[in-house]
Amino acid sequence: MDDRKRRILDFIIQDYVATAVPVGSRTITRKYDIGVSPATIRNEMSDLEALGYLDQPHVSAGRVPSVKAYRLYVDDLIARADSLLAPDEEAWRYFAGRLTQLEDAAQCAAKALSELTRMTSVVMMPSQPDMRITTLQLVPMPKGAALLVMVTDSGLVRETVLRVSDSLDADALYAISRSMTETLSGRSVLEVQHMLDAFAARGGAQQRVLDGIRELASQMARQASEDTVFLEGTHNILNFPEYAEVSKARSFLSVMEDRKRLLGIIRGDQELITVRIGQELTLPEIDDCSLITVRFELGAYHGLLGVIGPMRMPYRQTLRTLTTISRSLTDMFASEE
Amino acid sequence: MDDRKRRILDFIIQDYVATAVPVGSRTITRKYDIGVSPATIRNEMSDLEALGYLDQPHVSAGRVPSVKAYRLYVDDLIARADSLLAPDEEAWRYFAGRLTQLEDAAQCAAKALSELTRMTSVVMMPSQPDMRITTLQLVPMPKGAALLVMVTDSGLVRETVLRVSDSLDADALYAISRSMTETLSGRSVLEVQHMLDAFAARGGAQQRVLDGIRELASQMARQASEDTVFLEGTHNILNFPEYAEVSKARSFLSVMEDRKRLLGIIRGDQELITVRIGQELTLPEIDDCSLITVRFELGAYHGLLGVIGPMRMPYRQTLRTLTTISRSLTDMFASEE
DNA sequence: GTTAGCACTCTTCCTTGGTGAGTGCTAACA
DNA sequence: TGTTAGCACTCACCAAGGAAGAGTGCTAAC
Description:
The first copy, chain A, has 337 residues and is α+β, with helices and mostly antiparallel strands.
């Protein structure tokens, strides 16, 4: 494939991404000064089609990039990764808001991504199978209640409200907290859950507290073993002419509902950047969509940021936004812990 | 309006709610055994139209209930409120999941509502202008961090992660927590926010903690003065043939984005049940929708649960679901505090 | 190797006529 | 007086038939 073919292919991708309309030979000469006539372009396009880089919806329509064309384009984009390193200023500013906890950060990132890209964003927090408890603390609440707060070594926080005896003041709650922390800190959430399951029916004064710990531990254990996913901006899909039919939009949305399925697809991604184009996504209902995922680091583990949109998506800009947010997430966790 | 007219009107509403297709005179005789011929029904329908209870999309279509008809139907439904008192078993079971905090409960209720009704749900938590701080507590976290937890008298909890000196162990953090609580407890969040604004640039060892408190206080103050809204299931609108055009669906969704506008409409509702039908909603973009809100109690204040869907909605079932969830929310808060 | 010209294809949009659901009116009937 | 059958009429809906336009492939000339 010579240079001119390559340039024409790039023009077609660029134009189709922008307009969603099949690109004809005249359109190219009108919009992009390539120095040859439509007829020549036609010959080249004919060659490109033979090579498998272009599809023709029907004989009298323009050409549309094939999966192979997007693949070429994206692989090239990733190879010249330096162009993606320049941070996306808008994304930086957008995501500068203050974040407190892991989940906040993930949800916040998902929201930022979906608003910046105007597509659907997905964030996978990594599973942390060996997460250990560092602190348990009871915080007094009004009317005989207390907030049980559980903190793990990875900075995950969970809390629940308990009913406790009115006779317990702040100091008493703190004393209990200390002894609980002493007993349980350093143990994994799974271990704690099993320990307390054994105690379950023991009864007694502090039963409610134990139940609370057990509940939190099991919540955390669940979260520790399964990766969790956040989705935002699912209904941005309506902005794309590809999804102008409600039935298509609905099928897209119902695919998005099934988070386990999505998770199953992206879970294994180890590369810094993974791009799945069209059928590569292995979601037949939305085989005209693409999914880009970018890794971020969270201690020893890694999570994924992703964007789902039509196959015809602005790959370059989307990748920049993704890498920018991914980098700031990685930095944030690195500094916080 | 005599009894037979009323019965015919009810049939038309019932059928139109179920099918979204204008109801003709023959349809009525076929589906509902009313004992008279289509011609008679036609005469009655003609009368009902003259009375303003029916509309006719065009001359050779069946009839469609008017706003006035829905109004009559709904007012009647509310008047015979006892029929709504029977709790919706499915809703009960669905909503039986354990809840920890106010926001959790609200969000959870919103989710349950949208899934049960298959429409868009809205939950408004009440503003609590005189909310006061009861506890401030620092919980140790790994790597020189601490979780600052703030609890108010109404049971609202907020927390944020702070960086603190490594030299502070659990006991030291507790000592700080005690003195903070002593100083600030009983004060309103607004007061605290202003106090700390004055101190802002003071610097010093505990500056980070003070900043944390200030931030939380201002978050809470914002929440205390503004009511907060949760929306769920916005894209359920796609399930209705009325919104089969993507452009309509999009305009619905963009109305839903503007929470302040929604809030402005429902904020003032004092009744136990408020039903806004069609234009009564004063949202011209979606003037073929209805909004039902039901009050729930939260201490001295009240919040609202609502469902938004097409004007042609199953009012009776929706009201039952709403009142059931509302009652269980009210109960939950009453017992918890 | 490039370009102009031309016949050809096929989608899109508009028009047109047929079909059927539903109505309103009138006249007959109980 | 209320109910019913019959009938002409209206109008949305749908399928079929062009006309227009965009785009192609091929051929022949530059």
